Amino acid sequence: MSRSPSSAGPRWLDAGELKTWQWFTLLLNELPHAMGRQLQRDAQLSYLEYYVLAGLSDQADHRMRMCDLAVLVNSEQSRLSHLVGRLEKRGFVRREPDPADGRYMHAILTEAGYSHLREAAPAHVEHVREVVYDALDADELRALRTISEKIVRRLGDRRPLNGE
């Protein structure tokens, strides 16, 4: 019979694993900040604001229920509501009751929001390319995708990405 990890005691990280973990957690902290700085500088958007606009633009009708959008961008609904409110004030998003079920609200990408996103996207994609893609060769990029998929699935996240 195998022992559970709790009865066997903690499985401490060895020196190599600890160094990997430290670099990985540094990446998890630094990458969103780097993306956010570029977006703020070039498009006057936070990283999450850009992610919301991009998520809405990926929908055929440029709309999503707020609860579904919260899942997509991994945000609590109250935080997302404040963020969408800021985007509404800028004319990038509007909210309407769901015509099929008035208990739900839709966030809808406006023409102004779509236009702003299209203007912001080229510089953002170039920044992503410079920071991530240009740093890795083809084999490393495939490994990064495989590793990312494995860890996300292990966390229980089953959200489909575009084209999958």
TrEMBL record:
The keyword Transferase does not apply. Pfam families: MarR_2. Keywords: DNA-binding. One of its GO terms (molecular function) is DNA binding. The keyword Ligase does not apply. GO terms for biological process: response to stress. InterPro entries: HTH_MarR-typ, MarR/SlyA-like, WH-like_DNA-bd_sf, WH_DNA-bd_sf. Gene3D superfamilies: Winged helix-like DNA-binding domain superfamily/Winged helix DNA-binding domain (1.10.10.10). It comes from the Bacteria. Residues 1-153 form the HTH marR-type domain. PANTHER family: MARR FAMILY REGULATORY PROTEIN, TRANSCRIPTIONAL REGULATOR, MARR FAMILY. This is DNA-binding transcriptional regulator, MarR family.
